[in-house]
Amino acid sequence: PDWTIQDTVKLLGVSLRPKCMANTRLEQSRLYSSLSRAKILSCLPVPYHRKIELYRMFVVPKALYGWIVRFPTKADSNKIFNALSRMTGTNRMANPLIRSIIYGGACHLQILLAIRLFKCLCRMHCRGTAVWTNVPGTPSRKFRDWLKDWGWREISPWNWQRNAHTLRVPEHAEVDAYCHQIRMAWRHELLRK
To answer: What is the DSSP secondary structure assignment for residue 23, as one 8-state letter?
Structure first.
C-alpha cells in the first residue's frame, strides 16, 4: 500500500524524495553548519578577498552538498549568501540584489546549483545517458524549470533561448562558455528586478 512507502530515502548522506517537501533534518543541519563555518571564519584577521576565497572553500561546499535535483529555498540560499557579507563585515546595508549581481555568480547557491546541474546534464548528454523528460525529480526537469523561472524558453529538446542568446547542452569543449552565459543571464535578470 501507498502508506508503507517511505517519503525520504537516505543514500550516501543525501536525502532523496519523490515529491516536494520541507527540508529534512540532515539538510537543515548542513545549512546551519555552513552558517556556523562562516561565523567562525569571520573571526580570522585576513583581507576581504581572502575571506571570499575562504567562504568559497569552506562554506559553499558544505551548503551545496546533497542538493541534486532539488534546490534549497531562496530564503535558505539568501541566508547562506548573506553570511558572506557578515563574514567580511562589508556591504551590510547594500541592496541584496546588487550584491548578488556583483559577486553572487561565484558565491550564491542558486546559480552555483544551476551551473552544477547544467554540467551534470552535459556529461550525461555526452555519455548518452541524459533523458529529455518532464518527469518530476529528474535532472532535466529541474534544470528546465529553473531556466523557465529565470526567463529562458525552450525552442527544442536541449535548446533554450533568452532574448538574443541561445543555450544548448553542448559538447565538452563549450561547457564553460555556456556556464558563463547562464551566470550573465542570471545577473541580468536580477538587475531587471
So the answer is: P
